[in-house]
Specification:
CATH class of the largest domain: Mainly Beta
Structural class: alpha+beta
Radius of gyration: 25 Å
Number of strands: 12
Strand content: 15-25%
Helix content: 40-55%
């Protein structure tokens, strides 16, 4: 468990009061300030005891970790501040009240929030909570957005984070049932296990750790896109819809005969109505038409690139009624499967 690991780190890294580093930003009287990091990535963890104390753990690549506790019994919030980096916040327990761009937000256990560098904000100390903060240089996320475009979720999620200007932050909330599998289905994985791997790698700080952490951040953004709901501006929803549709299409292409509506529901934890609305928004088709188009496209590919018998191809893409397959294939391509194969090989 990530929380257990972080608490253990706090015990290991605890320093005596005289060694406690000077901290900025506890209390509004500290004034507005900008915080930056020298490492490409660092990890902080807060354990806030309401009306009592704030324990902070810091782990950074190329630097020694530390942990200290601050008395916050007479303080109700941090100073207003902003960052020279992207702050990713993971609420591990309790509720965190933040004020971002002058608006109140309450983030609960399981929420993941990315705060833009240009967004002044502060944290309130009104509730006990445990929160992990992953501080990431923009360059690292931009590298993911440009170099991993084939990873549709990762490229879209990083674009949403980097280009956000509407709310000053992007919030991801776990889908219902995350971490649990429906009967015969695949469990929705949270990002907590990835964050724990990142923490282990930062603490280990070995040769290649920066590359490993970059890969884990890629995995984290991919998982957020697939398994979390994003609170984003309406004009950005199409980007995430397109990534989800491509993921569904890839799944159907990989197993055309088995990709039933029920199997899609088990894999993606959406109901049939959602699938139909998603496909309709993106393609103008129903889910049934979308699946049929993908199956026929795969059949056409196999006809042109293999010597498989037409009946075997029809069965592979999910059509066991050969007459029906011939009819819908001819309707789409204007010729029978045999003529399509002959034409493709004469091109």
């Amino acid at each position: 468990m990530l929380t257990d690991y972080l608490h253990e780190l706090m015990k290991q890294e605890a320093v005596a009061g005289g060694d406690k580093p000077k901290q900025h930003g506890v209390g509004p009287e500290a004034g507005h300030y900008v915080r930056d990091i020298t490492s490409p990535i660092s990890l902080y963890c807060w354990c806030l005891e309401r009306g009592s104390s704030l324990t902070v753990l810091r782990e950074t690549l190329n630097e020694r970790g530390m942990c200290f506790t601050t008395d916050v019994s007479g303080v109700d919030r941090t100073a207003t501040h902003q960052h020279g980096y992207i702050e990713a916040m993971f609420v591990l327990g309790g509720t965190l009240h933040q004020v971002i761009l002058g608006k109140d937000y309450y983030f609960c256990g399981g929420d993941v929030v990315f705060i833009s560098p240009e967004s002044p904000h502060f944290e309130c100390f009104e509730d006990s909570c445990t929160v992990a903060f992953l501080n990431v240089r923009e360059a690292l996320l931009r590298n993911i957005a440009t170099q991993y475009r084939d990873s549709h979720y990762a490229s879209v999620v990083t674009k949403l984070i980097l280009d956000d200007s509407s709310y000053g932050h992007v919030r991801f909330s776990p889908k219902a049932g995350i971490g649990k599998a429906r009967k015969g289905g695949i469990p929705l994985e949270s990002v907590e296990s990835v964050l724990e791997e990142i923490a282990h790698e930062i603490v280990a700080d070995e040769a290649g750790s920066e590359l490993v952490v970059s890969g884990l951040v890629l995995r984290l953004t991919e998982r957020l896109g697939r398994n979390y709901n994003a609170n984003i501006a309406p004009q950005d929803r199409g980007l995430l819809d397109a990534a989800r549709l491509e993921d569904i299409a890839r799944y159907i292409r990989s197993r055309p005969a088995d990709a039933s509506v029920e199997s899609l529901q088990r894999r993606y934890h959406y109901n049939a109505d959602y699938f139909n609305r998603l496909v309709k928004r993106q393609t103008g088709e129903t889910l049934s038409q979308f699946r049929q188009d993908l199956r026929l496209t795969e059949a056409a590919r196999l006809l042109s690139q293999t010597d498989l018998h037409v009946d075997a191809i029809a069965s592979y893409v999910g059509y066991h009624n050969q007459g029906f397959f011939y009819r819908i294939f001819s309707a789409r391509y204007g010729m029978t499967p045999a003529k399509y194969r002959a034409a493709a090989r004469h091109q």
